[in-house]
Amino acid sequence: MVCMPLGLPRTDQLTSLRIPNSSPKMSLEWLVAWSWSLDGLRDCIATGMQSVRDCDTTAAVTVACLLVLFVWYCYHVGREQPRPYVSVNALMQGPDATGLQNGFVYCQSPECVRCSHSEGLNQKLYHNLQEYAKRYSWSGMGRIHKGIREQGRYLSSRPSIQKPEVFFLPDLPTSPYFARDAQKHDVELLERNFQTILCEFEALYKAFSNCSLPQGWKMNSTPSGEWVTFYLVNQGVCVPRNCRKCPRTYRLLGSLRTCIGNNVFGNACISVLSPGTVITEHYGPTNIRLRCHLGLKTPSGCELVVGGEPQCWAEGRCLLFDDSFLHAAFHEGSAEDGPRVVFMVDLWHPNVAAAERQALDFIFAPGR
């Protein structure tokens, strides 16, 4: 306990201080050090207050406003994060998604913007855009707004060589084929993992027989031959049963920077053409994506024609094209040549900005 007799001078007060188990000399040194530390703290506070007074008021208010806006933006963006890929371990343990038949996602809703071509589609898209802008911002939405507002005119007046069936984003550079550098990172990553994808395909293909289609494969309509696909992601929806059979390929999708995985225009699958197959000319649904084909098995006599320009696949190499152009595929080889096999994945068009990608994921979310 500290004893402080009232009415004594300061020097007498100091000498009267007593701290248990301490000598008078030590008590005096302790008090002096304590007094010095208080003086230092007072000086520090005074210096800080003077610095605030000297600061330009306008600059301080501007910084404070920017900080508040940044916190507000982070809060609103954080309220609805983009849907990430499900981990492979979760797929191994989780139940199959609803609406799966034979491992393939079939659209069950007449309201699906990917499959419906009703007159109310543009109104539905505009409603989705308004809802997105209310949650986030109109900033960077000019091109999407223009595209939705004039969608009917764009789709009806497009030249026959390029006519997407669902959504056309204006002012995007157009070309039937794109150079590998358009999505260099993802192209190189896919090509480095060529053997991994090929091995998982070969394990799947062993289940084929002449009498039945193995579970998980889908037969597509063609005028001649056979075209089957094995989807890991179909119209933005993961197919868990199929992903469990190709875990390393599915993990690879999560490493791609520009893979479309959160809206109805995103697909990833293994595509197999048997000899004698012809895929007739058709258009894709949109110009916001590039379709990437990684050649797994490419016998002679196989050809892809996009916008009237023919190209051939090569094993271990990626081919990028805009499938909103009129395109067709052929396998004119013999039975001895075997099937043509590619791994197909949809990537973002390189000129679709990040803000536009987030908005399009929201507007064309599966089931919306």
From TrEMBL:
Keywords: Dioxygenase, Membrane, Oxidoreductase, Signal-anchor, Transmembrane, Transmembrane helix. It comes from the Eukaryota. The keyword Amino-acid biosynthesis does not apply. SUPFAM superfamilies: Clavaminate synthase-like. Residues 191-350 form the Aspartyl/asparaginy/proline hydroxylase domain. It is found in: Membrane. GO terms for cellular component: membrane. It holds the Pfam family Asp_Arg_Hydrox. GO terms for molecular function: dioxygenase activity. InterPro entries: Asp/Arg/Pro-Hydrxlase, Asp/Asn_beta-hydroxylase, IPNS-like_sf. It is a single-pass type II membrane protein. Signal peptide: none annotated. Belongs to the aspartyl/asparaginyl beta-hydroxylase family. May function as 2-oxoglutarate-dependent dioxygenase. This is Aspartate beta-hydroxylase domain-containing protein 2. It comes from Tursiops truncatus (Atlantic bottle-nosed dolphin). The gene is ASPHD2.
